[in-house]
Write a structure and sequence with these properties.
The complex is a heterodimer of chains A (290) and B (379).
Chain A lengths: L1 H52 L18 H9 L2 H32 L5 H11 L4 H14 L6 H5 L6 H12 L3 H9 L4 H12 L1 H16 L3 H6 L8 H6 L2 E2 L2 E2 L1 H21 L1 H11 L3
Antiparallel strand pairs in A: 1-2
Chain B lengths: L3 E10 L2 E11 L4 E5 L6 H9 L6 E6 L2 E2 L10 E4 L11 H12 L3 H15 L14 H14 L4 E5 L7 H18 L2 E6 L2 H7 L2 E6 L2 E6 L1 H6 L4 H6 L6 E8 L2 E4 L6 E5 L6 E7 L5 E2 L7 E10 L4 E7 L2 E7 L10 E5 L6 E4 L5 E2 L3 E2 L3 H6 L12
Parallel strand pairs in B: 3-8, 3-9, 6-7, 7-8
Antiparallel strand pairs in B: 1-2, 1-4, 4-5, 9-10, 11-12, 11-14, 12-13, 13-22, 14-20, 15-19, 16-17, 16-19, 17-18, 20-21
The chains are: A mainly alpha (290), B alpha+beta (379).
């Protein structure tokens, strides 16, 4: 009896230590996998920076560290194209698109969340469907509209078609639907009109979602390539992604300056990531995009 | 003066009526409690008064002025919600200040009112905190503060205590009552808790299935319930409702040995009825030969009182036992149901019938067969 009573906990202890060891192994294994994946993702970025530092004759060198590091590629890239102007253009386009998409998203989501109106569900479905329409489908009509409006080769042309997005409407609608109805009713009892409720009650409480969404819109607009490629004609009215492409010519690709320009183009996004690390991660989690 | 008139108020959702014509008059300064089970329409009625729900038909008037289409903020009502409904991003001060800011009051006046309300509710130390950093009771106080600062003519409370723990609920209940005494504003309080209803109300409105079952003071509603529903809803334990019949001028329990509970006045229609009696009105017979013989199934010890549940035919009979220790589980006892404590209801409609009842006369005893003596209520 006594032996049994003693044996049982010992067995249990052994089992628990075994399961603890397994758990530890699992954890360590998980970390190893994550570290490998991180390396896999980070390596191209590292290679971009390293290549940008190699002299022209050693661009295809395979060493992990540049044998003769120089900033020549940066000097060349800065002189070859107006990178500063392009970065400012990209910043203007990304910032305006972000702000406008947030405003239109907030207004549309508020309307869907707050009121029932004829065909509201149909309109909601149509907005959701626009998310599924690829850029290539609307490219030609949008191009013609912009061309007819005489807006080719202008920043306005890059901003205008992005004034509203289904992602913004749907994400904000989801957040608004989970906002407590009683708070809205309390505001109504307090005498707040719909406009005031939106800006003074609802919006301040959606800061998390709005911040996440802002980051997503900003990054995707910053990385936009195809639409600016169609519309811009001169480097002065172009964005940085087009500037990078200018180093790929029919005579061959200038890899060193291209990598230098790419590094410069990535800098603002790097800074955004570093400053708003938490928000960036949560925004990707919220949108379900990896 | 704030006088509320509810005239045939009806509410329908998609053609389905949920409130079937509510009529009530609420006098100035009254504390009215609307009580009823979940889904009876009490919160809907309150929201119609607040203006948060449209009135399908009927009239709602404040001081004779039709309010049906008046915006909630313009009705002079302030509401305290079940989930507090505080603005999460604002401090306590800003929460209380917000309606005043919207109303366009001067900064000094706003500050004065908020400080005054905070002093009344003991919220001064928390004015710079956000709702997330407050306890449930403190949040509820802020919600009340937000209502008070507006100096409304009518306070509306939508089950404001149901999210609080039992102890805090009692404390807040007392505070609300004190606040009402101090402010003397007309208040309408919705709850499903009968203790809250009984303790707070000047006037009680009992609702069931979208209809008003009874309006009256707590005492009247408790002692003279207008229907079987009210009798069964108010009181803990609820009133015992037993099937009975009126025959040969006597009231007898159905299925029991011929046992007249009382004599009824001549001319009353004979037939089945339901007899109600409060658990505390039932007496334990000291005499083993008189009273209704029952066996005690279970005794609940509540400290200050003891409640016994006795098996009686198909029903359970709740009895408040004396604290002297008489009446133990498993024991057979004899119960006396005094005629003056009996309530008679029509079995089919549940409506109360105020029949005059008299204790069974000794002559009845003689008239009855041998052995019935035990069942006779002593004069």
């Amino acid at each position: 009896m006594t032996t049994d009573a003693l044996a049982l906990p010992r067995r249990a202890r052994r089992a628990s230590s075994a399961s603890g060891w397994l758990k530890g192994f699992d954890l360590a294994g998980g970390h190893v996998v994550m570290a490998l994946l991180s390396l896999f993702c980070l390596f191209p970025v590292y290679w971009m920076i390293v290549t940008s530092l190699r002299p022209a004759n050693k661009v295809f060198e395979r060493s992990l560290w540049p044998t003769a590091a120089s900033l020549d590629n940066y000097t060349y890239a800065l002189n070859a194209i107006p990178i500063g102007q392009m970065l400012v253009n990209t910043l203007i386009v990304a910032a305006i698109v972000t702000v406008v998409q947030l405003i239109t998203g907030l207004l549309a989501a508020y309307a869907f969340a707050r009121w029932r109106f004829p065909f509201d569900k149909l309109v909601h479905v149509l907005i959701a469907l626009t998310w599924l329409v690829p850029l290539q489908v609307v490219m030609i009509p949008n191009y013609l509209l912009i061309a007819n409006a005489g807006l080719l080769d202008s920043l306005t042309a890059l901003i205008l078609p992005h004034f509203a997005s289904a992602l913004a409407v749907l994400m904000l609608l989801q957040a608004m639907r989970s906002f407590p109805n009683e708070v809205l009713e309390a505001a109504r009892m307090d005498g707040a009109g719909s406009w005031r409720v939106l800006w003074e009650v609802v919006t301040p409480n959606l800061r998390g979602t709005i911040a996440s969404l802002a980051i997503l819109i900003f990054i995707s607009t910053w990385n936009e390539y195809f639409w600016p490629l169609l519309l811009t004609r001169t480097p002065e009215h172009s964005v940085i992604q087009i500037g990078i492409q200018m180093f790929m010519t029919s005579e061959g690709t200038q890899w060193g300056p291209l990598m230098a320009a790419s590094t410069l183009a990535s800098l603002p996004i790097f800074i955004l990531y570093i400053v708003l690390q938490q928000q960036v991660v949560s925004s990707f989690m919220k949108s379900g995009i990896r | 003066m704030t006088h509320l008139t509810l005239n045939s108020l009806r509410k329908a959702y998609d053609g389905k009526e949920v409130l079937h014509g509510i009529d009530a008059e609420i006098e100035n300064g009254q504390f009215v409690v609307i009580v009823g089970p979940s889904g009876c329409g009490k919160s809907t009625l309150l929201r119609m008064i607040a203006g948060l729900e449209d009135i399908t038909s009927g009239m709602f008037m404040i001081d004779g002025e039709l309010m049906n289409d008046v915006e909630p903020a313009d009705r002079g009502c302030a509401m305290v919600f079940q989930n507090y409904a505080l603005y999460p991003h604002m401090t306590v001060r800003r929460n209380m200040d917000y309606p005043l800011k919207i109303a366009g009051l001067s900064k000094e006046e706003r500050r004065r009112r908020v400080d005054e309300a905070a002093a009344i509710l003991g919220l001064e130390p928390y004015l710079d905190r956000r709702p997330a950093h407050l306890s449930g009771g403190q949040r509820q106080r802020v919600a009340m503060g937000r209502a008070i600062v507006r100096e409304p003519s009518v306070f509306l409370f939508d089950e404001p205590l149901s999210n609080l723990d039992a102890k805090l609920r009692v404390q807040m209940r007392i505070e609300i009552k004190k606040l009402h005494r101090r402010l003397k504003a007309t208040s309408i309080f919705v709850t499903h808790d009968q203790v809250e209803a009984m303790t707070l109300a000047d006037l009680l409105i009992v609702m069931n299935g979208g209809r008003i079952e009874q309006i009256g003071t707590p005492s009247v509603v408790y002692h003279e319930p207008a229907s079987m529903f009210v009798a069964g809803f108010l009181g803990s334990p609820a009133m015992n409702l037993l099937p009975a019949e009126i025959r040969d001028g006597q009231l007898r329990l159905t299925g029991m040995p011929a046992s007249p509970l009382a004599e009824v006045a001549a001319g009353i229609a004979e037939g089945p009825v339901t007899v109600g009696i409060r658990p505390e009105a039932i007496l334990l017979s000291g005499n083993q030969s008189e009273g209704l013989p029952v066996t005690i199934d279970l005794v609940e010890e509540l400290g200050g009182s003891r409640i016994a549940y006795c098996a009686l035919a198909d029903t359970a009979l709740a009895v408040v036992l004396p604290t002297d220790g008489r009446g133990q589980e498993g024991r057979e006892v004899r119960l006396l149901l005094p005629a003056e404590a009996l309530h008679i209801f029509e079995t089919a409609s549940g409506v109360r019938r105020d029949y005059t009842l008299a204790p069974v006369s000794p002559a009845t005893e003689v008239r009855n067969a041998a052995g019935l003596r035990d069942m006779v209520i002593p004069v």
